[in-house]
Every structure is written in structure tokens, then in C-alpha cells.
Write a structure and sequence with these properties.
Oligomer: single chain
Shape: globular
CATH topology of the largest domain: Rossmann fold
CATH class of the largest domain: Alpha Beta
CATH architecture of the largest domain: 3-Layer(aba) Sandwich
Largest sheet: 5 strands, parallel
Strand content: 15-25%
Number of strands: 11
Order of helices and strands: HHEHEHEEEHHEEEHEHHHHEHHEHH
Number of helices: 15
Radius of gyration: 21 Å
């Protein structure tokens, strides 16, 4: 199939899925696009926002539109790792023989909602690490392969700290994007009111499937990126490190730890998708700039002075972009 045709089909599929989600979700254009960017880049998403903004509704609608299996995990402080991955059960067959049999946990789905992930203990949170990175689950010395495509969409409340456990840096780094959901404006609130308090229930059409998503992911990796754009991304990542002599003064003053190599990969892959959506076969500086905030905001660790002065990591990233 010609490259132009593949790019056109990618754009059409992406836009159709986006439009289908908008049948239920009012506004939140950037959030919906960000979730789809992560999905087609083979990554995971951390959604941050106060309760009641439709995070769960968005993820469930996404799984319906893509015809993917869906499971929701409600994280609580008393949850154990086996509640996520599954466990070995002693079962008896028709002949009375007993043997251990693996009972899969809710992680065995293609779209997994990790609701309020920061309410579980670090031990339980870590049960997701192998699945997110390797797409496998290991129980009793046996590894089980997860179905592709596989995507974890985790949510957390940014203002409620009671009974929560901060996600470790290693776990945060496994999320391709961190998306911050804002409260709807007046017009959006009116539309939400009308949609959610009437008798009408919106049906979601299945737009795509697992095979199509896999082929779209393959196309993304084939998008070209020029050497000077690669250098731009590298300078952006290096600019988040305070020990880099070329980093801006703001980075050197307020940052403890800069972005990892996964941040480099996240920006590159999602910028390639932005290029495809714009009908181009190569990545531009604007594509990189448009994905820098969600790709890096959770990968920069502020020092004591930065936290004390209330500096936001978004400010650090914008300062670096303006200096490049």
C-alpha cells in the first residue's frame, strides 16, 4: 500500500475514534488527543484531576470505540499484588485429582483502568511495573503474555493526600504522558448537564480493532525524523538536567533530577504521530513542542528550593523550550 494511502487511513481512523469519544465526552480535546497519542505510540497514560471530571467514562468509552477488552481496578490501601496480577488456585478435576491452576487477575485486559492508583501501597503499585514494561505477568515462576494492544490508563487525585502513596519515580517514568484534566467551562458544563440528565443514552460505534491499532503503531515508527530535529529533542532532554552546563539557569536552580531516556522516546514517538495527523511524513519542531509538556512534566524532579517556591515542572519545560 502506498505511504500516502497509509497516512491518510491513519488520519481517518484517528479522527473517527476521536469523534466517537466526543459523543459522550464534552470538551477535553487535548486530553482525548493525548490519550490516543499514547495508545498509538504503544504507551501508558497517567490522568490527574479532581473526582467527577469523567476520567473513568473517557477510558471506558475508548475501549468500546476500539473494540478492546476492558477491566477496571479500584486501588485501595488494603489491596495486594495478587489482586491485580492473579493467583494460583487449588482445583479438583473430574477424577478427584488436585492441582494448582492460574486464575488471571484484572490486569489481563487490553485497556486497564488503574483508578486512584496512588491509594495502593508501593508494593501493590509495583505489581504493574512488569506488565507496563514487558507486557507480561509473572506468577509462581511462570510468565504469562498479555494481549496486544495493551494500555494502562491510571488516574490520581492531585489535591487529596490522606490515605495516598506517592508514585515512585521509576513507576512515573513508565507512563508515556501525564495529562492534567481541567474543570469544564460554563458552556461545557451546560452540555454535560443536558447529556447526563436526559433519557437519551449514547451508543458507541466500534471504529477500530486490535489488528488495525497494531498496524497504525507500525506506521508511526516508520515516520522520518531529520538529524537537526533529533538534535533539538536531545537538547531539550539535556536541558532538564541541572548538571548540564548548557541548561538554563532555572533548571540549575530548581531541578534535582532531569528527564530520562524514556522521555526522549516519548517525545519522538508522539511527535511522529502529530506529523502524520498533519499529513506530513517527517517530524517538525512544532510537533516536538506540542508534546513536550505531557511527556516531561512527570519526569522532572524538583529540589527543595523548587518545591518551596511552588515552581511547576511545566514552567521548567517552557523555559527550556524558549531557550532552545
Amino acid at each position: 500500500m502506498p505511504l500516502e494511502t497509509q497516512v491518510q487511513q491513519f488520519k481517518e481512523n484517528f479522527n473517527r475514534v476521536e469523534a466517537e469519544i466526543h459523543k459522550r465526552i464534552v470538551g477535553q480535546d487535548d486530553i482525548i488527543e493525548g490519550v490516543l497519542l499514547c495508545l498509538f505510540a504503544n504507551g501508558h497514560v497517567l490522568l490527574e484531576g479532581v473526582p467527577g471530571l469523567g476520567k473513568t467514562h473517557l477510558i471506558h468509552t475508548l475501549s468500546e470505540a476500539l473494540s478492546l477488552s476492558f477491566n477496571r481496578i479500584q486501588f485501595t490501601p488494603d489491596m495486594m499484588p495478587s489482586d491485580i496480577t492473579g493467583t494460583m488456585l487449588l482445583v479438583e478435576d473430574d477424577h478427584g485429582r488436585k492441582q494448582f491452576e492460574f486464575q488471571p487477575g484484572p490486569i489481563f485486559a487490553q485497556v486497564v483502568l488503574a483508578d486512584e492508583i496512588n491509594r495502593a501501597t508501593p508494593r501493590t503499585q509495583s505489581a504493574l511495573l512488569e506488565a507496563m514494561q514487558e507486557r507480561t505477568v509473572s506468577v509462581a515462576r511462570t510468565s504469562y503474555k498479555l494481549d496486544e494492544p495493551f494500555c494502562v490508563l491510571a488516574t490520581q487525585n492531585p489535591i487529596e493526600m490522606d490515605g495516598t502513596y506517592r508514585l515512585p519515580e521509576a513507576q512515573l517514568d513508565r507512563f508515556l504522558f501525564k495529562l492534567q484534566i481541567a474543570f469544564p467551562d460554563e458552556d461545557e458544563l451546560g452540555e454535560i448537564l443536558r447529556r447526563t440528565t436526559s433519557e437519551t443514552e449514547t451508543a458507541i460505534e466500534e471504529i477500530s480493532d486490535a489488528e488495525t491499532i497494531q498496524s497504525m503503531r507500525q506506521l508511526v515508527r516508520g515516520v522520518l525524523i531529520a538529524e537537526h530535529v533529533e538534535r533539538y529533542i536531545i537538547q531539550l532532554i539535556r536541558g532538564t538536567h541541572p548538571d548540564n552546563p548548557n541548561s538554563p539557569e532555572m533548571t540549575k536552580q530548581y531541578v534535582e533530577l532531569g528527564a530520562s531516556i524514556r522521555g526522549l522516546q516519548a517525545i519522538t514517538l508522539t511527535a511522529k504521530i502529530k506529523a502524520i495527523l498533519d499529513g506530513r511524513y517527517n517530524v517538525a519542531f512544532e510537533d516536538v513542542q506540542s508534546v513536550a509538556l505531557p511527556a516531561l512534566r512527570h519526569r522532572i524532579i524538583l529540589n527543595f528550593e523548587g518545591e518551596g517556591e511552588g515552581i511547576q515542572t511545566d514552567e521548567i519545560i517552557e523555559n527550556i523550550l524558549s531557550s532552545l
